[in-house]
Structures are given as C-alpha cells and as structure tokens.
Amino acid sequence: MSSQPAVRRSSLHSLWRIRSYVRPYAGQMALMTLSATVAVSASIVIPLITRAVVDGPIADGNRAGLIPLGLLALALGVTEAALNFNRRWVQSYAALGMETAIRDDLYAHLQRLPVAFHDKWQTGQLLSRATTDLSTIRRFLSFGLVYLLVNIGTYITVVALLVHLYAPMGVLVAVAAIPLFFISRSLSRSYLAVSRRVQDQQGDLATYVEESAVGVRLIRSFGRRDHVGRTFRKQATTLHDSSIDRARLVARFWSMFDLVPTLTLGGILLLGAVAVSRQAMSIGDLVAFVSLMLMLVWPVDSLGWILANGQEAMTAADRVYEVFDTEPAIVDRPTAVVLDEPQGLLRFEGVGFHYPQSAAEVLHDIDLEVRPGETLAIVGVTGSGKTTLTALVPRLYDVTAGRVTIDGHDVRDLTLESLRRTVSTAFEDATLFSSSVRDNLTLGSPDASDADVQQALEIAQATFVHDLPWGLDTRTGEQGLSLSGGQRQRLALARAVVSRPTVLVLDDPLSALDVHTEALVESALRRVLTGTTALLVVHRPSTVALADRVALLEGGTITAIGTHSELMADVPSYRAVLSQHADEEVAS
Amino acid sequence: MSTDIKSWRGVAAEDADELDVAVSLRLRDRSRRLLASLLRPHKRPLWWAVAVLLLQNAGAMAGPYLVKVGIDRGIGPIRADGDYTVLIVVTSAFVVAAVTEYLAKRAFLVASGRIGQAVLLDLRTRVYDHFQRLSPAFHERYTSGRVISRLTSDVDAIGELLDGGIDDLVLAGLSVVSVGTILLFLDLPMGLVTLLSFPFLLWLSRWFQRNSALAYRRTREAVALVIVHFVESLGGIRAVQAFRREPRNQEIFEALNGDYRRANERAFKLVAIFAPGITLIGNITVAVVLVYGGSRVMDGSTEIGVLAAFLLYLRRFFEPMQELSMFYNSLQSATAALEKLSGVLEEAPGVPEPAEPMPLPKAGGRLDLEHVHFAYRTSVVLPDLDLHVPAGQTVALVGATGAGKTTIARLMARFYDPVEGAVRLDGLDLRDLSEADLRRAVVMVTQENFLFDDSVGENIRFGRPGATSDDVVAAAEAIGAHEFIDALPDGYDTAVGKRGGRLSAGQRQLVAFARAFLSDPAVLILDEATSSLDIPSERLVQRALRTILADRTAVIIAHRLSTVEIADRVVVLDQGRIVEDGAPAELMGGEGGYAGLHRAWAESLV
C-alpha cells in the first residue's frame, strides 16, 4: 500500500507529540534510563567477579583475597537491586503522572467539543482512547522507551568491544544488525495496520457493550437476549480474529529477532574456530568474544517486544490525537464580550442550519423576535426542527447561516459562560447527573440559596424530592435513585428556573406530566414567565396558553406567527398540528 | 456530594477495604475457579504450547553448549591436520538447534496467542450473556459504566496475564526446579546454603500477595468509577454544556482519575519493592555462595569446576525468579479483575428462568394479577392487588404519579416478580414460562424508546429479527411512521446516530411503536408510550392502535386521556389500590376521580 509510509510518519509524529507530557518528567525519565543502564552494567559485571574469584584468590589459595571480592559482588548485587527499585519507584510516579495528565486533558477537551462532535462519536470509542490507549502509551513511556535506549546503548557498547577484541568478527556482528533493521521495518509496516485495527475494534466492542447496557430494558422487553448475544459474539469474534492476526505477526517477528543473533553466533563459532586454528586470535579471546556476544541476546530479543509495544503506542497516540486535533468549533471568540445586565431581547435573523454530515437544511430563513419578558411558543409537527431551533440559542450548535442575537449581540460574540448563564434550558429528555438532587438543581447557579431552590421546586411541582430517602441530598442519576420520567422532567424544569435566567428555553418540558400536575406547573410557570424572555416548544394546546405569541415551524422555516386564537382561526395547518379535533374539521 | 456514597455502589462489586480474611479467600477461590474453568477447554492446545516451549528451550540451551563443544573439540583437529569435519558437524548441529528454536518459538507464540484470545472471547461472551440475563433492577443499581468497565478494562487485565503468562510460568517453573535439583546434587552444603534464601523469597512473596491483592482490587474499582463518570457525563453532554457543568465535571473527573492514579501507584510501588527484592535476595545468595564456596574449595572439600558450575547455575536459578515475580504480578492484577467478573457471574438473576418451563405454544392473552404484593426496598407500592384482564381487552391504567401504574406494567412484563401473589398469563404463572415464550407473548413499549446506532429499518426489525424489508415497511405504514422515514435522506437505511439522536423525540417514539407492532405480541403494554408525540402523530398512532389492538390484549398507561379513550375498560388507581373500574363512558358519567380527570383533560385541549 502506497499510503503506508505516510501513515507511519503520522503515527510516529503523534507519538512524538506526547513529549509535551513527558517534559515535566524529563528528569525522572533520565533517572530511570540511567538506573536501568547502570543496573544492566552491574548485572554484567557480577559474573566477571565470579571469574576473578576463581582465577584469583582460589587459584592462589589466598583466603584474605576472597573477602573483598565477595564484598564487591555483594555491593554490586545490592546496587543492581537498589537501582531497579529506584527505576520502578520513579516510574510509578512519573509514568502514571503522564498518563493521568493526558487523561485529564482528554476529558477537558471532550467537554469543550460541541454537541455535533458527540452526536457523531460513540462513547465506547472515546472511552477506549481514554483507558486502553492511554495505558498502552504509558507502558511504552515507562518501559519500552527506557529499554529501547538501554538496549541500543548495550548493543553499541558490546559491538564496539567486540570490534576492539577482534575486528573482522566484530564487524560481522555489526553487519548482523542490517537484517534486524529490515525485519524491524517490515514489522512496523504490517504491525501498524493490525494494531490500529485491533484498537478500533476494541472501541467498537466497548460501544456495543455500552449500547446494550443502556438499552437493557428494551432488549429484555422484546426478549432479544440471544439476538444481541449473537451480535456481540460476532463483534467479539472479529476482535478475536484481528488479535490472532496480531499474534501471528508477533510470532513471525519475535522468532526472527531470536534467530538472527543465534545464527550470528553460529557464524562466529565457525569463523572463530578457524581464526583460532590459524592463530589469528587466542582461545581465551574467543571465549571472551562469545560470552560478550551472549550478552546481546536479551537486548535483541526484547527489541521485538519493544518495537511491537512502540507501534501500539504509536497507533494509540494517533487515536488520541484524532480527538485532540478536533478543534472545538464552539468556543469564545477572541473578541468575545461578557453580557452584562441582559435585557433579554432574543432575535433570529435569517437563521439557517444544517448538520455537518449532510447538506440538507433543517432550518432556513428564520426570522423571529422575542421581546424582553415575552413568551413565544414554537409549534410544528414531529421532526420539523423545533428542538434544533432551541439548541441554537445557548450555542449547543452554531447557525450555518444568519445569526441569533441577544440584546443585539450575536451569541457568537458573547462569552460562552455569560451566554449560558443568561440562557437557561430544559430538554424533553431530562438528564440528571449522579450527584445529589441539590447539586443537580444548582448546576447552573452554584450560589443559589435554599429559598431559591425551594421556590424552583414549587414552580416545577417537584417538592416530592423532600420525600426521597435523604431529601435534597439523595443521589439521583445513573448511580443513584432512579426517578420516573415525569419526576425527572420536573427536576429538569426546576433546574432551568432556579437561576432566574433572563432567557428561558424550554423544549417540550411538560410532555411526561399528567394533566393535573401540568396544570399546576403551568400556573406557577406563568408567574415566572412574566419577567422572563421565553422560547417554548410545545405539542399541547394547554401549554400554548402560556405563550403570548405562537410561531408555526413548517418545512424548516416560520410560516405563521400570531396569537394562538389568531392562528387557530386563520391557519389550517396550525389547526392540524394543535387541535385534537382537526380531523373532523378537515374531513367535513 | 451525596451523604452516603457507599450505599449506591454496586452489589457484586465488593468494596476493597472492608474485606476480612475469609471473604478475601473466598474471592480468590472463586476467581481461581473461574480461571480454571476458562482454561479447561484448552487442555490440548496448552499441552502443545508447553511442548513446543520446552523444545524451544532445549534449542536455546543447546546453543551455548555446542559453542563450547566446537571450541573444545573443533579447533584441535583443524590445527593438527586441517580437518574441518568436527567443526562443520558442530556448526551444522548449531544451525539445526537455532532453526528448531526459531520454529518452536514461532509455534509457541501462535499457540499461546490462540489460547489467550480464545479464553478472552469465551470470558467476554460469558460475562456479556450473564449481564443480559440479570434483571433491570440489577442494572439500575450497577450502572452501565460499570458494565462497560467489567467488559473492557477488567478483561484487558486478564489479557495481559494471558499474553506473557504461560511462557513466563512454564519456563521459570521449569528452570527453578531443574536448577534447584542440580544445585543439591552438585554440592549439598552449598545447595543447602542456597536453600536458606527460600524462606526470604516465600516471605516476600506472601507479603506481596497480601498487599497487592488489596491494591489491585482498589485499582479495579477506581478505574470503574472513572469509566462510570466518563460515560455518564459525555452521554449527557447537552446538559453539561447548557448548564456550564464542565468545571465541576472536570473537578470530579480529576478527583476520580487521581484516585485511580493513586491506586495504581500503590500497586506499582509494591512491585517496585517486590521485584528488586527478589533480585536482592538472589544477588546476596550469589555473594554468600561465592565466599562460602571459595573457602570450601580452599579446604579441599569441593573442586573449582564445581564452584564455577554452581555459580553459573545459581545465576540461571535467580533470573527466572524475576520472570516468575512478573508473572505473579500480572496474576495478582488479573485475579482482582477475575474477582469482579466472577462476582458478576455469581450474581443470580433477580427474575430467574424456570428450570422446567411450562409450554406456551400460542398465547391467548388473558392476564391475571392475583393478590399481588410488591415493594421497592421498604416502600410498599402495591399492597394487595387483584386485576383480571380477559384476552383481547384493552385496559387503561389511570392515576397520579406513584399510584403504581408503571409497577403493574413491569410486573406484567416480568421485569420484577411480585413479593407475594402471582401474575398469570393464560392461567400460567409468569415465573413458570420460558424467557422466549414470555417475550414472544408480552411486549412493553415505554417512553424510554431506546434506539441502537443503526439504520431506522434495523431498529424496527429488532422487533422481529428475520423480518423482510416489506414487513418492516408494512409495520411502519401501519403505525404512521412510513411517511417521515421515507422522507429521510436514505429512507429506511438512514443511520439514526447515537441513541437515535438524528431523529426527534417524536420520531423515535414512532419507530419504537413500529418495532413493537412488528413483533406482533399477544399482550402489548404501553407505558407512557405516546408522551412525546405531537397531536397529528398521536392521532395517527391512535387510529392505528384501534386496528392493532383489536385482536390482542393491551394495557395502556397514559396521562393523555385521548389514548385512554380507545380502551374498553379503565382502571383508576390510587396508592396501589383500584378505586374505580369500568367502561370509559360509564366512569365519565359518574362522580369519581376519572370523571374529574377527564374534565380537566378536556379543558386542556381548548
């Protein structure tokens, strides 16, 4: 494949970019490498002492000479252990520190990325990047990278010694590095692709696990356990097969990394024996040569493992940087201003919108004005774009044409903080987080007083929270007490009004309430809405009564605007959307 | 945060700190049993792997020996009379050994990769299937994040053990035993001195085992919490951003991530002591043997050659110890993960399938709730309910929040079992029906209407896998969803996106209806299934329901009384008791709660 070198370059580049996380630990990394180097040297020297003992004191019968050498062996042994301890101890701090820092940043970045990004990316894929991929990178930084340096150092040192000992054979050993180089290169090519495939499939599997955990009630109610089980098995088998491909590749290359140094040793045996017999070198030199060469076996052998680890870290870094490189599209402009003392004049001026993946316009040429304190209801059939329209105000999405303004400021010229403080929203799909009810209510306004909270609860008819096991301290959300759809919707509504926002955006906020509760909420809301600019998506005539004016959204644009009774009287399509009895009227 | 973090944590996830010795042992037993049961089907491949591994090892050992032979025996003849035969034979043998080692290593890596991946596949599907078998009540407590954590991060930890475990264990065990034997045979006193290191090794290993079990258990739980928060907060990103929750989320995430780091750090530091500790014991032993052996040689009690060999073997003895210690480390980490996974597998389904189910070939649809008593934890929802629904009847359940409507629906769909009394379908207790029969007969649609990230058509087909495209279209047409689906960019092939996010709430509900219609159950339970629909769609669904429900039993919960109007019978509930029961027209004329509700609703339509 012609694109392979480019892929490799970009993967290597991704890994290289990790250096900004390594930099704070540069000292520790150096210390780890140094410790590893010295420890490896110590472990090499210990056998030499053994030889010195045999050749020296024992041969001479020198009992006194035994003790210092014994102590030296002890000292070296303790040094090796101490340095290994030091390397691992430092590593537990540094490597985990890097991993944790990248994960924190990744999460922060994900929170900054707009809703459109999250619509497209499955949580399982993001999660596998934040967990599995980061662990892979950590393993490479803490172990692979250190030993890559140590092993290359060992290799060069030993080869230099060998060349020094007997140049012709030393050069032969050095030349053996050439096939190793080609094997590594060929390994890199095929390994990158399969490593990436495995990682992507791990993400897919995590995604499916997440979906089937969230959809467990649906699966049960249709009795589709076997069906999802089969789908899962299929995906897990795909991952299994790719992992086997990876294992085969590993098997092919690692065994090569073993074979090359061994065959070189065979060559050395042949050449060495000939050289000795021709008296070009002494037997003692040959023995020394061979024992030195044996020291190369482990570094070369482990190179296969380290390279594989490095490739995995490269593709993992690629995957992580795919997320980091996605620029948050919805951020503060450099010139963004804080919206002080907002009045609440909300305008849509020639607004158009389409989702990033498709050119089909969901909204076009929307012109609307909601005056301070006014309540405007948006009415339209299912799928007409009402929810999208409301999402444009707090900039969950940005318009693709025209602009939305508050008090004359384009919302894109305001700081997100002040915009989202001014605009408060409640969605039909009420998301509660795993924390206390109080915390969930005061999300947008942490300094809200108990009285504010109580008032919001009363408006939303959500005083049932006082009857929960721990009242306002009861934990809700996924990790807490599960509430009914209606209860969650009322809490979401309370959350939207607790901060007394200037602009309130409510997307069908009463759909899950029974008629009685709905009536109570409405009468309470009416009082709140007098001083608040409100944009209200509604399906029910009863909720429309809250609005001063109504706008009809049809075919992606506003086709009629007026009071409820005006539109009921004059606009047949409005009647069709909102009247329970429209059927009969149309029929007659 | 909440006052009692602990009380909401999972069930099978035993918290690390409060384990006494007995529980800890039970956990370890349970996880070792799981590991054994995972490996058992791979006995033959395992033996094969061990065999090629030994072959590889033999090849590797032969190399240095042949070099020695080549030098000792090969050089003489060349010097004497230019005879290269010995050298060539030895070198050829060397090449054969090298190639054998190469082939054996390759075969071993393939074999161990296959075994490891097969075990992981088996483990994944077992745990996944078991999760699907556990009740919705379990999942509500356990959270989806923790399910993901078990099936990703925990399985990964076991994968790491399987990756390098087999060869580390086999080779290390083999050389330790063989070299240990050689040591004792070479020179008994020196061998015994060497054995003095064993108590220390054992003591260190025990110390490591005890502490690392705790540390790794913490790691597993800490990473689960990171995952739970990650999944939950990114799943609700709209609310996060709309309410400027990001800083607080970041705080929580960094705290959890920090806990995870500390848990890991603890485990890493234990290894940082354990692994060099083994090296230290080994190195000290070498130094002691060096001096002791040296003096024995001088005493004439042993020979130089023996000492040299002894020291060489000693080195071989302690080097695998390192590998053994790394194996032990991954074993400890994997054991902590296995504890969690075996805990999940041990969790009994809250609503178990009967061992010998009663057959239900074709459900008629008669539902009877007989003296049903039900309570969540301590709060009683249904004190003693009797409700009989004849086959083919459409019953509407009406009442305020907390009246027990949803609980009744869930009991009928056997999401829960009653504490006392029985729910019967065609006279058979639901607890006696097989899962397949029950689900074919009873389908529930809720306002949750979860969609998979797949095409619209596939989501409808979920109602009856194997249905043809025509069936799917027909179902959508029957429910009034065809029009909007047809207008989507790719029609029925349009991907709905994560959680169906590319569709509006109302459209998702229509798809959910079509899905339920396609499954064609004898009993259809609708729990607030129309709340997101606008009036025109609701009208369509209503018209469709009249035909759909004509020949089946239906239980409808809706606060929009328009849906209730199609019912044959209305049951009004208050605090788990039936307070009114009759035909809609009958109740509407009366003075009861339903008449009042209906008046309020009619007024809301103006």
Oligomer designation: heterodimer
**How many DSSP-defined strands of chain A?**
10
Main β sheet profile of chain A: 6 strands, mixed
**Biggest interface, chains and residue tallies:** A-B, 183 and 177 residues
Count of discrete alpha- or pi-helical segments spanning 4 or more residues of chain A: 21
Strand content of chain B: 5-15%
| CA-CA gap between termini of chain B | 45 Å
| Class from helix and strand fractions of chain B | alpha/beta
Name of the CATH first level of the largest domain in chain B: Mainly Alpha
Secondary-structure element string of chain B: HHHHHHHHHHEEEHEEHEHHHHEHEHEEHH
Report the major sheet of chain B.
Answer: 6 strands, mixed
What is the CATH H-level superfamily of the largest domain in chain A? ABC transporter type 1, transmembrane domain
The side-by-side strand order for the widest beta sheet of chain B comes to 6-7-8-3-9-10
List keywords for this structure.
heterodimer, A: alpha/beta, ABC transporter transmembrane region fold, Rossmann fold, 4-stranded antiparallel beta sheet, 65% helix, B: 606 residues
How would you characterize the overall build of this protein?
By secondary structure, chain A is of the alpha/beta class. Chain A is built from 21 helices and 10 strands. In chain A, β7, α17 and β8 form a beta-alpha-beta unit. The N terminus and C terminus of chain A are likely disordered. The N terminus of chain B is likely disordered. In chain B, a hairpin with a 2-residue loop joins β1 and β2. In chain B, α3 packs antiparallel against α5, α5 runs antiparallel to α7 and α7 packs antiparallel against α9. In chain B, 65% of the residues lie in helices and 10% in strands. Chain B is of the alpha/beta class and 606 residues long.
